[in-house]
Amino acid sequence: MAFYCYLLECADGTYYCGWTKDVERRVQTHNRGQGARYTRARRPVKLVYMEELENQSEAMRREHRLKQKSHEAKTLLIHQYEERIHEA
Fold it and tell me: Which GO terms describe its molecular function (predicted)?
């Protein structure tokens, strides 16, 4: 079973990082105001980055590492991700 680490861009331009087994469902939960407290006041949110990991432990570790990055570093990661998506 795959797990995912993801970044959301909030309406105020900030990023939220999390992990899940179902990214689409989790984004919908955030946008309904039933997700993390952080995103409730910053809706709507949109998915801007995700990566698949092998297990929950790896997803949680990756989430922790991404949360340590600056806003600028996250923005660069998102741009690189978007370029890979468009190339595929």
Answer: endonuclease activity
